Amino acid sequence: MGSTLLDKLWRRHQIARAPASEDVSLLFVDRSLLHEETTFSFNAANARAQGVRFPLRHAAFADHYAPTRTHLRDDPSLVDAEARAMLDLLSDNTAACGIPFFGIHDPGHGIMHVAGPQLGLVQPGMLVTGSDSHTCTLGALGAYAFGIGQTELRQVFRTQTVWRRRPGSMRVTLDGPPGPGIGAKDVVLALIRQLGVRRAAGHVIEFDGDYVSGLSMDQRLTLCNMAIEAGANSGLIAPDAITAAYLQGKPHAPAGEQWDAALSDWQGLRSDTDAAHDATVRMRVPGVLPMTTWGTGLDQALTILERIPDPEQCPDPTQRQRARRALQYMGLEPGAPIAGTPVDVAFIGSCNSSRLEDLRTAARLLKGRRVRVPTFVVPGAQVIKRQAEDEGLARIFVDAGCQWREPGCSMCVGSNGDTVAPGLRCASSSPRNFEGRQGPGARTHVMSAAMAAAAAITGRLHDARDFIVD
To answer: Which of 182, 235, 250, 392 could form an S-S bond across to 224 if both were Cys, CB 3.0 to 4.6 Å?
Structure first.
């Protein structure tokens, strides 16, 4: 019996098994990524005078509380007191412990799931932990990556290890070419709609198939970012030539003889042909259409051509009640077409959809047009912001009436003050839509960057394909 990619990554990092359970192992952590909400772990480490054992295996990013308006970065006194305190604490704590810190004025700054890969901090074969559930994004590079809590982070600080219950492996094969204008965000929303939010629980999703092998790294990162939204522990994609091309020359990637050795090593990081996965799913991609959520869960999604479902047609009483609540919160009527639903705000950004390819796609739709609603375009990292400005994308956004912002999590979660007002509806390229995610009472429709751009142009949920020019 062959080994899955998860098997191989697990064996590489397993140090010991728990005496009481062979399913739980002590794993070595190659890289730990941090953001502002790690104060408890730093305080615990410092209080015990233990500090951080391997500070250079960590990297910290100011992302959740980072102001995205340039004038706030230039004058910190204008930043909200809570946000300023969180940013200052992270700066002070990392300096005291010797951890590299990519603050808001650092050229490597950005959302940690976006900037980390851009810097080459995440590589195939690594085990990566992060102080955020969307650390699963980094599995697109062939790393086993997952979010951990403050208590687990304290252990990583002290020992560079973490205890973990071994998850199952779910193979998700995505077949066939996508239709025109269909991106990875549409595909993964269609997949979550098919799977639900529980079927992948207790598993790592390994994405494969000819659709996946043809994806750019930006699109692969979008795919794995949403694994957690399907209930999975993480997402994985076996490294290949696309992975290598993406990493080559990155600041923290191997170079010279080490690069050659790394390439040789990465060739073995894939599931064997005779490996047995714990679960398998197959989905055809050619039939996927532009997607948007209608409710307050990622499985409450539909194509832009469909009508809002009627909860009373749902046979499961729990799901029926959930749908009723979602429709009430979202202010939608069952049976109405989702296309044409008015929106008040559009947001293009987040760790899911703020990479250069996302910005290029949105700019193609917005070029020569004007937005009808306030539209925020927030790149995921400084290096992406500079590239977008060099390519003229930023000028397209500004000319269209968008707000071109500094990198950060921004309106995805609103910790920095970028929020949606109560009762307003946002077309958002972020990865989550639960109640209050973008602010108390905010109504979030999750979609691709292209779909968010189309909503910005029309002021309504609209099929992005209508604006695609070949």
So the answer is: 235
Contacts of 54 (CB under 8 A, 6+ apart): 160
- pLDDT value at residue 468: 82
Amino acid making up residue 59? A
R_g of the chain, CA atoms, integer Å:
21
Domains delineated in the chain: 1-288 (3.30.499.10), 293-467 (3.30.499.10)
Task: List all residues 6 or more positions away from 358 whose beta carbon is below 8 Å from its beta carbon.
Answer: 218, 222, 348, 429, 448, 449
**Average pLDDT estimate for 161-170:** 97
Examine the pLDDT at 368 and tell me if it is beyond 90.
yes
Do β-strands 234-236 and 203-208 pair in parallel, antiparallel, or remain unpaired?
Answer: parallel
Mean pLDDT, the chain, rounded, equals: 95
C-beta of residue 186 within 8 angstroms of C-beta of residue 463: no
**pLDDT for the residue numbered 208:** 98
50: pLDDT strictly greater than 70: no
Q: Are 228 and 203 spatial neighbours (Cβ–Cβ below 8 Å)?
A: no
Following CA atoms 24, 200, 207, 348 in sequence, which dihedral angle do they give, to the nearest 10 degrees? -110
Task: Using pLDDT thresholds of 50, 70 and 90, give the confidence band for residue 49.
Answer: low
Look up residue 14 and give its two tokens: 């397993």
* Sign, Cα dihedral of 387, 390, 392, 398: positive
Please check the confidence at residue 395 and state whether its pLDDT lies above 70: yes
